[in-house]
Fold these 2 entries.
Entry 1:
Amino acid sequence: MHPFLWGEQLEAMLRDAGLEGQVIAAPQACVEVMPTLSVRSLLLVERPEIHIKLPLTIRTLGSRNIRTVKPSTIGDGNRVQRLLGAIAEQEPLLRGRLLLTDESRGAHVDGQSFLGYILRRYPQAVERGTLVSVAGLLADTPSGECLFEALGNRFYRGDVLALLEDYLALTFAVHVTLWLRYGIALESNQQNSMLLFDEEGGGLRLLLKDNDAPRIDGEYLERRWPLLYRFVDGLEDPRICCRERLALGQMFGTITLQLNVAPLIEGLASRGYGARRELYGRVVQALERSLGALEGEDDRELRELLLEAERLDAKYLLTAGTLQSKARSGAADINKHYGRSAPNFLREAL
């Protein structure tokens, strides 16, 4: 149990679930933990490479969105992790550049989404490098520079824009390849995406975690990559496999582009590393290079959605999570309900 839930909250949940008197509270705490960026994922102080993801009674996406651990999440996360691992091994553009946490272990009490956990293990490669969350790249350091600048100074001899180029190339190599070649879009936001800097100059790598809620074009994957499709045959959450290919572009645009790339560009522009138009031009060029590396893949939808459209899709979290019922909004998933209303900042560079 998460320490925050211990006591009255746990007793109330057990009572509401009809489990009062059937659960024995441990007399002492088991291990010392610290909260991570996601709050409900706890780091084991004596084993920092191991995290435990636990239910937590907080609402971050809307009044009806409580952060539980659904039984389907455990199984589906493992299936997607195995799929991504197989792709990373076979795909030349990703081999050696994409790392994944192991989230194959977990447990739950049947029918009780607040009684469960997922065990997350980081790969051994992180012990030989510096691991940084994408969410923290613009955080201020004690020296007054942001973390991205500090990383540029440490690993790129002060060339912050060279680090930006590598970051964009790596990000698009992973996510554009998954989208166009495999029909997969990941909900790998800035919290679930981490950069691994090799202390011995082995290059920049991307580490992804918490991959239990992607969008997958199941028919495309099964038709083109039948051996890979076996990893996700039997997914429990029907929302993962989607029939509309637009769903992949919407997730790529609202996650990879708007959360993992655009804030960094805005931050670097505000720190004098170039005009917004110039920096977004670097994004477009990196995107074009990633498309060039995928010669033969159909990139028309990507170009229409991201480079040609006047507006980008935006997440309508407040509408779907609080202001309207699902019956009225039509939202099958609070976190994946969109509207075409965001300015297309990439057009500034065209």
Entry 2:
Amino acid sequence: MFNTYYRQCPAEHYPYTVQPGDTLNLIAFRLESSVMRILTANPGLDPNNLQIGQMICIPSCPPNHVSRIIERGDTLFQIAQDYGVSVASILEANPGVDPNSLRVGQRLCIPQFGGAPDVIGLRETITAMQSDIHMLKGDNSVQQTHESNYGSSTQTTRVTSVTPSEIRFEAVPVTFAGAFRGHFTAGRRYPYYQDASMGGRRTITVKDNFGVWHSFNYREQTPQA
């Protein structure tokens, strides 16, 4: 008989019932953990003598990390912003994760630098920022004009990349200089409107995460002969 001790799992762990054909390596791979972490969470567990129906505890994340389940539309950059950490730190905490191939339902371990992240406080700060921005938008004639002209646009463009110094949109083959990280999230789609004037000069006006319209001017590129 196997040890029923494993039915009581500590915090940040969850129970798993051993299935026919299971090995510790297979369980670790399927549940995105590691053999060493599972053995540490289950003192006395014999990896060479797993019993069908045996309950073992699976650590959801290592110490000083929290779990995050991937939802549709999530990107590593957006998740990093939510928790106030870097993309590199998330990749380091989740070896083997492909940042370009996240799966809905996949579990990530997010490092807690300087203690547990105050997610509620972060959301309150963002809400306050949005309130201030909405108030400023109401007093800004440019924003009012953009909203009246472009607010009904059904077109959307995806942000293909955003860095501290530049941004690029799917709709136009141009990279724009400027610090737009935080305003736009790579991989997300945003309402936009495209306009043109004489001389090949064009404008793409895109709404950001806070509902603010940004206009980007560029010159139409003529094909080389």
